[in-house]
């Protein structure tokens, strides 16, 4: 006997709520009962819509990645140059209102490095999405190797600065370093 079909609209609403819950509570609270209680649904409802805990985690990470990427893209505007794109990424990611989101991001990153098979999709996208966007933000006559190298430098620098900021809370020092880095990109443009 087949189970009832998944209501995809309801699944999308649940997924948004599960992502928000995970951002607020972290990965350690990501099990059926606490999530269900936090959302006011039954664990059976979550199983029905997501299958396994691993499938729910994959859905959470995919949605979080898309949210972060879309929000930064919206902030940068259509067809930004590299300096504008990098500043949009830094401005959004260093906003204290986003710190829980990025703490989750780094927690997942750490777990993914320890369990690459479990987090293969996350690892496939964690650099590639940004690298492609930052390569496209460079001048059209930039050779692909230089564009990829520059994009990698921007990604690594912003992530390093953000990790420092989240670990220390020393906003003035880290923001000063970020401004120095972003200034080099703006002068280069």
Could you describe the 3D structure shown?
- This protein is mostly helical and 189 residues long.
- Helices cover 77% and strands 0% of the residues.
- The protein folds into two domains: 51 residues, Arc Repressor Mutant, subunit A, CATH 1.10.10; 126 residues.
- The longest helix has 25 residues.
- The N and C termini lie far apart (63 Å).
- The model has no long low-confidence stretch (mean pLDDT 91).
Summarize the entry for a quick read.
With 189 residues, the protein is mainly α.
H/E topology pattern:
HHHHHHHHHH
What is the terminal-to-terminal distance?
63 Å
User: What does the radius of gyration come to?
Assistant: 19 Å
- Helix/strand-derived category reads mainly alpha
Count of the separate structural domains:
2
Helical percentage: over 70%
- Summarize the biggest pleated sheet: none
Q: Report the count of strand segments.
A: 0
% residues in beta strands? under 5%
Shape field: elongated
Oligomer: single chain
Stretches where pLDDT falls below 50 for ≥5 residues?
none
Question: What's the total helix number?
Answer: 10
Global mean pLDDT: 91
